[in-house]
Queue: 2 jobs
Job 1
Amino acid sequence: MGRGAGIGAIMSAIIAFAVGVTVMFSLLLGDNPALFGDLPDADELARRFALPADVLLRLVVIVVALSIVIGIANLLFVHVSRLTSGKFYSAVLLASFGFTIYWYVTRQGDTSLLEAVQLPIESALAALLFLSLALGGARVMGKRRDIWGLLFVAVVVVVLLASLPLAELAPLRAWSDWLMRVPVSAGARAMLLGIALGMVVAGVRALLGQDRAFRG
Amino acid sequence: MAENTIALVSFALTLMVFSYLLGDVPLIGSLYRIAVYIFVGMTAAFTLVVSYEGVILPYLQDIQNPATSWTTLGNRADIYIFFTALLFALLLLLKPIRSLTWLTNSVFAVVIVVGAAVGATGAMTGTLFPLLQATVALPEGLSADFGALADTLIVFVGTVTGLYYFHYQLRARADGGGEPSRVGRGFRHVGKVFLVTALGAIYASTMLTCLTILTERIGFLFQFGV
């Protein structure tokens, strides 16, 4: 790594730390007058603490929106360049993009294009997902014939059968309800807590400049 | 667009997506890809429209009106924020120039770190504390109902052991290697039971959702045919 690049990395880390700590404290302390006890100007103080996070969040929201525009422009450039080498599918994508923009500009508020094209494709793809999931479940039994594979498939079968509107399956439904209320709730809580702890750790790593994402 | 046209286009596109099931048959196989490329193009266009209409346009209109302000700092501060964001977006375009990469990385640093700070604060106040409180809290009148007490205990044990499953710690062995402790291994096994059960239930719920959509699509195809 060159000297310039090294200084750049240090600068990025310092900026990251300063901005991150400011936003975090501003979010934790801002807009919460109860934290300032009986101070006479607690409301004003809480509002002032909330200001840095408000400003930085608005800045980032606009940057992200502009980044999306840049990303879409990049997508279009890539497909235009592929068009010259005779790629038919790129022409379909560009035509679809152009037509949608034309539709939006000429018929504002008309959602029929969304109903006719976007919704059917999304629904059909989600429907195809059912077959992939069913195949995946079957593969679990084929490849992982251990206690965990068996438990996984057993839970899937119980939940699926319990969803059938048959009177004969009432005991199974009661069992499935208990399964969802107790062990599934416990497992889901453990996963959510794990995700939350992971997010806190990843956040702190980014604040301390340990994350390589922005160091180039 | 007329209702019949909407139905006809929906019918054709649904069949094009379902042609995926026929595999890589010449001509028919490309129908699926055409539908997906139409979908990508349209999604990109809608994303652009939403970004422009939902974020950029309102901010542009607000900075032109001195009476409105996003913060207590006033309209002038809004203009500075907007143009700083524009400058940041322009700096992102400098990524290919190697000597100026540090400028792009600094913008990335601001975006990533603000996201990380919001995520970490949100995870603490929105998930960690409420879930921990809910897990350790005892329901009222618990002593009278043995079933409820057992359920609360199972949830507590499941949450703690499930969380322990993500914890990796080895005990040093004489030969320099490492092995998990027997208690730790037992905890992880119990935790795995709860995690696999939860994943199985989530998988089944997703399957049910997709099955409902599949039924609706097949119903639509038959209805259109009739």
Note: The radius of gyration of chain A is 27 Å.
Job 2
Amino acid sequence: MSEKFEAFVDHPFYDEMITPKGNARAYARKLYHFIDKLDSSELDDRQKGAELAIKQMGITFRVYSKEEGAVDRAWPFDIIPRIIPRKEWITVEQGLKQRVTALNLFIDDLYHDQKIIKDNVFPQSVLDKSVNFREQCVGVNPPQGIWAHICGSDLVRHSDGKIYVLEDNLRVPSGVSYMLENRLVTKRVFPELFETYSPLPIDDYPAELFDTLASLSPRSGVNPEIVVLTPGIYNSAYFEHAYLAQQMGCELVEGPDLVVQEDDCVYMRNIDGLSRVDVIYRRIDDLFIDPEVFDKNSLLGVPGLIRAWKAGNVALANAPGAGVADDKVVYSYMPEIIKYYMGEDAILPNVPTWRCMDEDSLQYVLEHLEELVVKPANESGGYGMLVGPASTKAERTEFAKLIQADPRNYIAQPTLGISTVPTVVHGKVEPRHVDLRPFILSGKKIEVTTGGLTRVALRKGSLVVNSSQGGGSKDTWIVEE
Amino acid sequence: MLSRVAESIYWIGRYQERAENTARLINVNTNLILDLPKGLIPDCEPLITILGCEALYHERHPELTERRIVNFLISDETNPESIISCLSYARENARTIREILPREGWEAINSMYNEAVENKSVSYARNGRRNYLERIINNIQHVTGLLAGTMNHDIAYDFLNLGRKIERADMTTRIIDVRAENTIPDDAPELKPFEDMLWMSMLKSLSGYQMYRQSMQIRIQRNDVLKFLFMRTSFPRSVSYCVNNMGENLSSLPNNEECLSNINTLKNTLNSAPTETLDNDALHQYIDKIQLQLAKLHNDIQKTYFQAFK
């Protein structure tokens, strides 16, 4: 065992690279020795080199603060990659494909016959209180019956060594551009590592995304016009919107660039007139997408878009209403949902979840707030949750009131001992907690990214990986053992 | 191509050209101050006149000092005409159309802005200013070359070039205008030798001194300098060159009739430049006429391509 990895000996969490004795796991041995040979100032230099590269490449995300308004921050990145052996990844990939297939069947069912409710597998009462169920979408048949074309599922590894699904993001999941850029940064900073390792390539994602979107086009026989619809440069994920449009060679459009004409087709405004749009990869939330149907005051959307979509003249990805499954109460039913539609057991386990809407669970949750993580059903970005072990008494009292006022809106999970990865902290290497967000594309076939975006909580002991709250990221390598 | 994208590219061209010309102008002016007798002309005042930001300057500053003026023009982000403001607008426009630019193009535009902001304190004193501004000019030239060498020369590139050339033509006329206004007073014949120096400095600010010598093969004289800067179609910073070049870009665009008729008007105006007979007043009026025609061209480009389908 090397001194450099001292902090990992008898470390109470599963580390992705280092065993509890402080030795390298088999697939990470070469990386371990490579890092070990770099002294503290070399490590710092590489980290600074990465930060400089990120600044030059303009890899940014936007954050809002009261003091400064909207500011562009450099994307936080840690240079030590996270490695997953290919053998394990194959199982994860199968699990994700199974899950997304079931999710799409579930959404399609909810907007049609609701068999799963009639068969008493999924309660009507949960659907009744769903904030992301869209009445306007009932009876619509999107191409191939698919609603969630792009899904980002968050995975964590618990101290038992198993990988669990933490949540599924079916609305406008972001992060894939950072996954792609992280690899480029690693190549700039650690070119030597690629002499000994051959992580499986990830850069076909934009092409796969393009193919998925193209397969949705309502017009056959013509090259489909695909656009990426962004809320604009003030959106926190604008970088990604521009990035994906650029990589796919598509137009990046804002709401006012599009118009729906009387023929219920969507057109974009060009320098020489209007031209038809076939597929819209929309990165605007349902509620802002069409002021005729949803939020009347939205300036981001396109009036008439839902009309055009229902008429089958344009494809929207993800389909409006797909977010109904992006609900943590729905999440808790995933094992049953998979079983119901596919007749299979879930390959990837869910984290055990208490639904506060169930009387008994509510009681248990209120009594054990100090040990649990409580989450609202429809928030993302790590907002509005209570991390029991890190909370104060006042926070717990406050939260108990929130839960009692609206039990349907809360679920609770045990505080997971989520895994760590060695991370550079002031020239030293220390364990920091990580999660993983792979992206799953569903069109005529299902494709999973090779790995995904690893997010890391840069603050010591923190479990919050969101970049808006002090999180960073790492390159993720799938390697042959 | 989306109208909004065309508009953004056009403005990237304009802002970059504006930043570059401002940098050139300040550099040459700083040099000139060293050569001329003290108090002959108000040191830096012509700069704010050329760049059309006198009113804003006087609102902010109680007095005209070299340092105040130069900082106002280089690094004051609250002055929309300052170099850093122009670079920031170019970058914001580039950000909104990142998907159109080659990756290296965006990175260069982004780095150029970052570098200008990080090192701005170097520009405060005369000794560092020259290098700072040359660096900015080089960086812009780098972006120009990079885009020329890596971007599809299609409609997007036409709009970039249109923005660049209309701004350049406008800046060249502004520079001539102000220099002509601030020549040596007639009642001081002992200062006449410095007059040529002023015209020379103007050529230098346009990187045109050597090109003038090569192509005109005569010593610096007012009328020849004017002829060179208005009419020399081979000199890439002359008004004629810019106008001809815009004509070529426009001819590959759709619905170009109105814009092309503006180009013809401009060509006629330039071909009939009566440089021999122009005294300073007539020169000023002539320049006004060209600037109005350029403004009309800008409006027509905007009307035809950016707003037609809104």
Note: Chain B has two domains: 1-151, 153-310.
